[in-house]
Amino acid sequence: MKDIYILNPAAGQGRAMKYKGRENAYVTKGVNDAYDFVKKILEGTCEDINFIVCGGDGTVNEVVHAVIDSGTDRAYISLVPTGTGNDLIRTVNEQDAECVQADVLTANEYISVNAINTGFDLDVVQRADQYKKKPFISGSMAYILGVITTLFNHYGTRMRIDYIDQNGKELFFKGECLLAVAGNGKYYGGGFKPSPVASITDGLIDLMIVKKVSRLKFIALVGKYKKGLHIDPSTGCPFKKFEDILIFEKCKSVTISGIEKICCDGEILPAQRVRIGIAAHAVKILNKKGTAKI
Q1: What residues are paired with 264 via a beta bridge?
Q2: Among 103, 185, 224, 277, whose CB has the most other CB atoms within 10 angstroms?
Q3: Residue 150, helix vs strand vs coil
């Protein structure tokens, strides 16, 4: 298998560039360049390729998208945590298998390997993007600062969410919403754990709807939400403190209406209505047990 390094110099304040001297290292030049490069490589070779992605979840998204669009089964992906959030690798490295046959979320014309969210968290991501450009601010700290500033600004979005649960039952929520997350991985925002019982290999979407709550209640509960202590892992249901403010379901599909934007793996994209589906076992990701020695 041939290793090819994909280095995003804009991710994680340039941390990926320490791998620039490696053989077969490619430095991306801007948005979608990783996609174009990987697609071109896969169209021109018949050998197995391991793309070692040194960047954030956005760079991983581009590489995965290119692999899927190429239609090949000869591509593997390894993750190096050199981005701001590095959230997908947290979930991947919890897997027992060396090669994880990972699901991918579909969202209109977009894809997401890790999570799709809208509402409060989207506003947080936009503010965190500004903070992470400042020196000495880590991805996790940028996200926490984004939470604080968003909390005291715009708060709550009226939306409709239609979803089909894992048993095929059609359900919906309509009302004032703090945020909605469709999880494939467990983590986002540099270590927040909104989908603690998610699996990237179960062919299901973990839908989390958080109803609008007072700022004081938010402050009281956000710490547990960050640690994933809002869902009981033994039952898959919200803990008692969260029962009146959370809707959680494992779903086959989710449609969100009444919005302006969505966040796919940390990238803000336009969407007034988004239908989220899932492509099961769509990409092969090597975890820390099976990846190349970095």
Answers
A1: 116, 267
A2: 185
A3: helix
pTM over 0.85: yes
Domain check: are 201 and 142 in the same one?
A: yes
Q: Based on the fold, state whether residues 138 and 59 are members of the same structural domain.
A: no
Q: CA 123 to CA 12: how far, in whole Å?
A: 20
* Positive or negative: CA dihedral 221, 222, 223, 228: positive
Q: Which residue has the tokens 């991306």?
A: 28
Overall size of the chain counted in residues? 294
Cα(91)–Cα(252) distance, rounded to whole angstroms?
20
- The mean pLDDT value for 47-71 works out to 94
Rounded Cα distance, 94 and 111, in Å: 22
Side-chain-side CA neighbours of 87 within 13 Å: the count stands at 31
Complete DSSP assignment for 40-95:
HHHHT--S-EEEEEEE-HHHHHHHHHHHHHHT-SSEEEEEEE-SSS--HHHHHTT-
Are residues 56 and 197 part of one domain?
no
Helix (H), strand (E) at residue 182? strand 170-183
Q: Where is the domain boundary, 65, 83, 101?
A: 83
* Region of poorest pLDDT, from 89-93, 181-185, 203-207: 89-93
Question: Which CATH number covers residue 67?
Answer: 3.40.50.10330
Query: 145-160 pLDDT, tens per residue?
Result: 888 898 888 778 999 9
Planar angle of CA 91, 89, 223, nearest 5 degrees: 60
CA distance 205 to 199: 9
Domain that holds residue 27: 2-83
One domain, residues 151 and 261: yes
Question: What is the domain-level CATH number for residue 262?
Answer: 2.60.200.40
Question: With contact defined as beta carbons under 8 Å apart, do 162 and 149 qualify?
Answer: no
142 and 206 belong to one structural domain:
yes
